[in-house]
Structures are given as structure tokens and as C-alpha cells.
Amino acid sequence: MESFSSKILENAVNELSRLPGVGKRTALRLALHILKEEPQQVELFAKSLISLRNDIHYCMKCHNISDHEMCDICINPRRNQKIICVVEDIRDVIAIENTAQFSGVYHVLGGIISPIEGISPSDLTIQALIDRIEQEKPEEVIMALPATIEGDTTNFYIFRKIKDYPISVTTIARGIPVGDSLEYTDEVTLGRSILNRIEFGK
Hints:
Helices cover 44% and strands 13% of the residues. It is an alpha/beta fold and 202 residues long.
């Protein structure tokens, strides 16, 4: 157990160590680094975290993070509103955008179905996706979920819900290794998987 000469430092280390993947030793290094920074820099850092928590919106259309009620992707007139790419979370939007190979729009589920973790369809934005399909009448829905059991379960659940609509349901090509998340896939492979998508169920 660490012994601190300062309760303030100890509190800072405890809070930093709550971050994912940050142990007590890493938290201590971060705290000491912050302590050496100029006060103005630390203040900017603190303000950015508070703003992140208090001022971020979730796009009312696709559930991506945004500075406003609608994200920049949804309001961009150059994006093809007739193609909706369904992803697990915001990190996947960032990964696909980095490929510069997709010009449609997104729908962020906020997770995938996982009974073990207690995540059911009602915990995700699946109904909002169905509502979008009814209202916007897209031509294609791309299922871009992880190549895992949970990802496949979510794919099939959504497919059953939307298969009777007059749309093409496709999935990204499996150039992505089974069990991998999109955010860890290199941009070339991910870009090709988007471009070479196949009809779902084939």
C-alpha cells in the first residue's frame, strides 16, 4: 500500500486510478506530472474535463457525441443520408471516419446485446434505429458490429426486426479478424471491409 506525505496527492492518485487501465503507480506518475505543469495549463485541463462531462450532447438522430443537438455528420449535406452504418459505440464511428471510405451516416447502438453483462435490446438504441428506418426510408443499412458472438447476436436480432422493410441489409466484409473490435483494426483493412460489404446472411 502506498504511503503519501500529502492527503491532497493521495486523493488525486485515488481519483486518477479509477480511470480504465490506470493503476496506482501510473496514477502517481500522472499526478506528479500535473503537479509540475504551469497552473494555467492545469486549469485548462481541468476545465476541458468538466466541459466534457457537462456540455457534451448525444446527437438526437444517430446518438453520436456532439457539441450540439445534431452531430456534424448528420447535418453535413454531403453525406449520403440513404446509407446508415450501425456501430456499437462512438469509437467505431471514429475508426470508420479515419478510413475516409464511408460517406453515409451512422447509428450508434451504445453497446451490443450481452446477456452475461446484463445488456438487453431495450438497453440499446435499436428501437430508435427502427424508427429512423420508418421515417427516413434509407436504401441500405450496414451492420458494422464486432466479429464476436455478441456482435453476431446483435446483428441477427436487428436483422429480424428490419428484414421486412424495403431496404438492403449488408454487413462489412470479414477482413476483420474474428473477436476483434473495429477500433483496433488498421484503417486499410477497415476501409476495404466497408467498401467490400456483403448482403447480410450470405
